[in-house]
């Protein structure tokens, strides 16, 4: 299976205006791998994902940090349309885990990323944790009728209190980049 787009340890990237079918994650946002990524310390930041139509029936539309050690920051995802996916074929709707493949057998099992500052999302935990659960800080957002109960930092708002979460009005620096049109012509003999 093939991931369609991978943003790994990069800055000022736009993934826009795409229609694709994927057998794996449609977009994977990463930053390094294990302690090597932590020591290298190059985050993925200033990433804009917008106006996508994707068919990803068995995996994530957007995977944040499936193999991540450094940071992911200032990621904006908007106007994403998902087709032909159902909860019967998708294993997890939102999954964050440090228990993934490793670059080698000598990895530091204590080298885990810190998750903080997540906004405009709803987060829930699995009913029974198999490993040590994540610790998190600075979590903001809304929840309604989530089962199992989400973290204590996200109180239940009830169905009638839910309103849309607006994206920040200020543009990211990548939004100010103007692309030039380049043409190239090949003369066939």
UniProtKB/TrEMBL annotation:
It comes from the Eukaryota. Gene3D superfamilies: Single-stranded right-handed beta-helix, Pectin lyase-like. InterPro entries: GH28_Enzymes, Pectin_lyas_fold, Pectin_lyase_fold/virulence. Transmembrane segments: none annotated. This is Polygalacturonase. It comes from Gossypium barbadense (Sea Island cotton). The lineage of its organism: Eukaryota, Viridiplantae, Streptophyta, Embryophyta, Tracheophyta.
């Amino acid at each position: 299976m093939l991931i369609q787009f991978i943003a790994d340890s990069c800055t000022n990237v736009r993934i826009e205006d795409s229609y694709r079918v994927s057998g794996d994650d449609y977009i994977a946002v990463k930053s390094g791998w294990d302690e090597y990524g932590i020591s290298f310390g190059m985050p993925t930041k200033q990433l804009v994902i917008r106006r996508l139509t994707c068919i990803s029936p068995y995996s994530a539309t957007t995977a944040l940090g499936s193999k991540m050690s450094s940071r992911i920051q200032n990621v904006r995802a908007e106007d994403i349309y998902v087709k032909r996916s159902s909860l019967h074929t998708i294993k997890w709707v939102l999954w964050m885990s440090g228990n993934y493949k490793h670059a080698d057998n000598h990895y530091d099992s204590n080298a885990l990323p810190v998750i903080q500052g997540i906004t405009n999302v709803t987060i829930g935990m699995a009913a029974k944790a198999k490993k040590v659960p994540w610790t998190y800080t600075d979590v903001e957002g809304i929840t309604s009728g989530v089962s199992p109960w989400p973290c204590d930092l996200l109180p239940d708002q009830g169905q009638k209190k839910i309103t849309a979460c607006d994206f920040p009005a200020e543009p990211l620096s990548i939004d100010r980049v103007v692309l030039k049109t380049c043409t190239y012509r090949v003369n066939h003999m």
